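Sat 14:20. Reprocessing the chain from the morning session after the first attempt stalled halfway. Input below, unchanged.
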Amino acid sequence: SRVSMLVGFVPVALIFMIGVTIGMVAGYYGGWVDQLLMRFTDVIYAFPDLLFLFIIMATLRNSGLGDIMGGLVLMFAALAIVNWVGMARLVRGQVLSLKEKEFVEAARAIGVPARRIMARHLLPNALAPVIVSVAFGIPSAMLAEATLSFLGIGIRPPTATWGVMINEGFQVFSSSPWPVLLPAACIGIVMLAFTFVGDGLRDALDPRMRL
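Finished this time. Tokens:
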């Protein structure tokens, strides 16, 4: 469970950093910077997520990166590369709606640097939907790891994750289903728990729910 939870949290942290940075810069500066970054985002978005993940894991599995920590580092990188696009688009949309507000115009008028405006004024006001997206992204990363490990291209045994356990238990499923059902149940329970957390955060952070 510790490794599976690690697979949930670390890639989402990388996704947050990449997506927030690209979305913030694109939304704030606009113009050719926005066009360049968004066209690059569109190219990544055009690939089917799961297929893109399969290609990265299968191609680099036997490389030096794939050997580090039993494939954990490659899993972190692959999940971050595939899933940062949604975060970038979300942050860009929030920044586009916020950068014309009076408090941003006032900060710009008194000469506050762009980096400080983005860090101190735009990011805190755009965090509510981002936090909800992060909460939903954690179980998605765990499910992706379980899927890849079940197919044999995820984290390498003997590193124990729920996905590896399902892969190994499936060999004796006909005689004893519990080695498959128990880790699958753990994945389902954790995913359901984080889904409830995401729903709760959305209700708590959405000002329309307070009316």
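Residues 34 and 108 are 19 Å apart (CA to CA).
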